[in-house]
Amino acid sequence: MGKILVFAGSASTVSINHQLVATVANQIVDHEVEIIRLIDFELPIYSYDIEKNDGIPLNVTRLKNKIDLAQALIISVNEHNATVSSFFKNVIDWLSRLDRQFLSNKKVLLMSTSTGSKGAASALEYTEFILPKFGAEVVASFSFPYFNENFDLEKLKVTDETLQLGIIDTLSNFLQEIES
C-alpha cells in the first residue's frame, strides 16, 4: 500500500496537534506511515531577499522530497489568533517558492485541535482553502475540541468515545480515498 507522511503545523516540542496526529497515524495499518516534526526542518522567515541572495534553503528541498515520496499526507494544524501559526505559514511559503504545485496529486487528511470549544476550526478552514492552491486534494477533515478534556497524554489516547468514533470514521474514509 501507499506511504503516508504525517506532521503537525506547530513549532512546539509539546504540540497537542503533534500528539493528536501521531495518535491518529498510529491507528493506521496496511500502509507505511512516516511521522515527522516540521521543527526538524529549520527555515528562516521567508524573504525575497533571502531567496535571491542565498537561494532556497536545503531544508525546503529535504521536506519537499519527503512529500514527493508520499502518496498522501495527514496534517494537523494549530491555531494562533484565529489562523494558522506563522511557523506553518512560513513552511508553506518556502515550499511554494520551490514548487508552486508542491502538493500535486497528494490526498490530504486535515485535522486541528485546541484547548477550546472550536478545536482550531479557523486554522483548519484556512488550510482547507489554501492547500488546493498548491495541488492538494483535501479528502477529509475534522476538528478536535477541548484537547485537555478529551485526550489522555499519559496513555496517548482519545478519551471521548464520540470523538474517537469520529476519528475512526474520518480515517476510514480517508484510507478508502487513497486506496481507490
UniProtKB/TrEMBL annotation:
Annotated InterPro entries: Flavoprotein-like_sf (IPR029039), FMN_Rdtase-like_dom (IPR005025), NAD(P)H-dep_reductase (IPR050712)
Keyword Oxidoreductase: yes
E.C. numbers: 1.-.-.-
Alphabetical list of Pfam families matching this protein: FMN_red
Keywords in alphabetical order: Oxidoreductase
Protein name: NADPH-dependent FMN reductase
Broad EC category: oxidoreductase
GO MF, one example: oxidoreductase activity
Domain NADPH-dependent FMN reductase-like span(s) in chain numbering: 3-142
